[in-house]
Write a structure and sequence with these properties.
This protein folds into 2 domains: about 5-110, 3-Layer(aba) Sandwich (Rossmann fold), CATH 3.40.50.720; about 120-180, no CATH class. The protein is about 35% helix and about 15% strand. The longest helix has 17 residues, at about 120-135. It has helices spanning about 30-40, 55-60, 75-80, 100-105, 120-135, 135-145, 150-155, 170-180; strands at about 5-10, 10-15, 20-25, 40-45, 65-70, 85-90, 110. It has a 5-stranded parallel β-sheet. Strands 1-2 form a two-stranded antiparallel ribbon. It contains 8 helices and 7 strands. By secondary structure, the protein is of the alpha/beta class.
Length: about 190
């Protein structure tokens, strides 16, 4: 099967109808993804394979596609062992654990889930800011006990405060947009 027979759709590698790929997943992946891939492919997930380099190098020899998260180191040695390897799927953002240059030299495509969790991360950051200013988690615990200590849990407003962001990539921009909605200063998009 040549790489020209793969169709990239929304960061998902889909083999053409008549083809069947051997896919290796080296870290945890949601069951629905494995089920979907398994409908037309042979899928093997070994969630701790990333921790055993020797086994990873042996397994990579048998596969057409590799799916990793952030713990699997896909360097020149691993890529070179993957004689049948056509594509690497990266669940998450960032490719710092994949030797992109060697993959390109070996004509191995890389598909990542860019922006897949950017909104979740931005929302998480804002929720942590709100929790830090208002002690929300402690207030919730107190209310669940039947109390309400208004003086203790009033906290401070985030409105008018200044937020410093280090890095203005996709996640930084999303945090800034949400911070602006709260009236937080320090960012001009």
């Amino acid at each position: 099967m040549g790489i020209e027979n793969l169709c990239l759709q929304n960061s998902t590698v889909v083999p053409k109808e008549e083809e069947n790929m051997n896919i290796l997943i080296t870290e945890n992946m949601p069951a629905f993804g494995i089920t979907r891939l398994g409908k037309k492919n042979h899928v093997e997930m070994i969630p701790d394979l990333w921790a055993n380099r020797e086994k990873l190098i042996n397994k990579i020899k048998e596969v057409d596609a590799l799916i990793v998260r952030n713990q699997t180191i896909v360097d020149r040695e691993v890529l070179s062992a993957g004689k049948r390897l056509k594509v690497i799927g990266r669940l998450g953002v960032g490719l710092d654990n994949i030797d992109v240059k060697t993959a390109a030299e070996l004509d191995i495509k890389i598909v990542s889930a860019q922006h897949a969790n950017s909104i979740s991360v931005a929302e998480y950051v804002l929720s942590v800011i709100l929790n830090a200013k208002r002690s929300l988690s402690k207030a919730i615990d107190d209310v669940n006990l039947g109390n309400w200590d208004r003086q203790r849990f009033t906290g401070n407003e985030v409105y008018g405060k200044t937020l410093g962001l280090v890095g203005t990539g996709d996640i930084g921009h999303r945090i800034a947009k949400r911070a602006i909605a709260f009236g937080i200063k320090g960012w001009i998009p």
